[in-house]
Amino acid sequence: MSRPAGREPRRLTRWWRRRSLRSRLTVIAATAIAVSVFVAFQVASELMDWELRDTTENQLRADSRVLATDAQRAGLAQVQLPPYAGAGRLVRVILSDGSIRTPAGQPALPPVSEQAGRVAKGASADLMESNDSEEGYLIYTLRADGGAVQVARAADDSPINRFGFGMLLIGLFCVVGGALVGRTVARAGLAPIDRLTAAAVRVAHTRDLDADIPDEGGGEIRRLIQSINDMLAALRDSRRAQRLLAEDAAHELKTPLTSLRLNVELLIRLDRRGTLDSALSAESRTRLLHDLGAQVAELGTLAAELTDLARGDVSDEDTELLDLADVVVAAAARARSRVPDVEVALDVTSVWVSGRPAALQRAVLNLIDNAGKWSPTDRPVEVRLRAEGASAVLEVDDAGPGIDAADVPRVFDRFYRADSARALPGSGLGLSIVQRVVDAHGGRATVARSARGGALLRVDLPAAAPPAPIARLTAG
Predict the structure, then answer these.
(1) In what order do the strands lie in the sheet with 381-388?
(2) Mind listing the pLDDT tens digit for each residue in 97-133?
(3) Which residues, in sequence order, are bridge partners of residue 154?
């Protein structure tokens, strides 16, 4: 059963790809030299063959003119033909009747060709022809005294063969030398790559991200080393951020877990004694259960925020063109359902942005929740949305005590809570998530003091053109 025609090339390609870069460079260098030597041999052989043939033809013409001159003086039938010397030129005289004369002891030449016979009859002055017999003669025919004289030489390929053998030896030497040179050059050129690989392997084995790879070489090698060092720096920052996240999460989880554990232990201890009903009044049990529910809810919220924050991206949802006013209205409705005591006053206009709806709604909800913790129950949280230049501007304004100037730079830090907020529920992650969502959408989040005395949180997002039908309706 025959193999598919395309399998061998694919196998050769796979074999080539498995070779090291050093081996590839060595093979490429040797192949390039071999091809160069072959091309040089072909060109030199053609030039040498042309030069030898031209020299032979000129010699044949000169010898023919000498013989023709002697024939003019003595006649073709009586011209003296020296005996064959055993090598060199061959001579033949063609008489007017078509007969021939040759020197004594000379090897027989091929029969007179039709074209040479026409020269002897006066149809043309001379003729240079090659014989394709086994011997291979180059014959020159020159008209003389009613007939013609011919001078021939056997084709001699020995100079070409010797030249070819010499070129073959030179080519082999050059290929071997080229392979060695290519190997040496590849080793020298790839030495920085080898050291870079060793350093990368050392970092992978030791997991020591603080050890930068020494910068050496130039050009592409330097840029590669700098890129790897930048990657190591990014990994160091990521590991540091993960460590801080774990430490902060452990710290924040400790308080609700401790309170939850103490309350549960109290209930278990009283239940074992059989004094649960007598030790705790109905009001105390209700308050204790309410505390347990609040602590569980706080743990759930903290776990969700930690998961969302540690995930590294805003969400897996796709970016789409949306009206930010719809997002703000939906977030305000969720805030009202979660904290019915907080009033949310909306003043929004339609502004289109390109973003992820769920992530943006989470950010707006966190802003409203944060404002609701501080705003008095008799004064609403004001949420305003408008277009300002090329930006969509969202402002969440509360009437609380405001943010101290010392706390403003750290408002959006993870787990940061001002001293005045320690007694309030929350994890300190809400505004950090807002900052991350806004950054992911190419926007900016800032905090300032409100004219109402509280905090004014402002989000600027790049605005987008509305869909075509809505744009035409607005213009109309």
Answers:
(1) 344-348, 381-388, 391-397, 455-462, 444-449
(2) 888 888 888 888 888 888 888 888 888 888 888 876 5
(3) 137
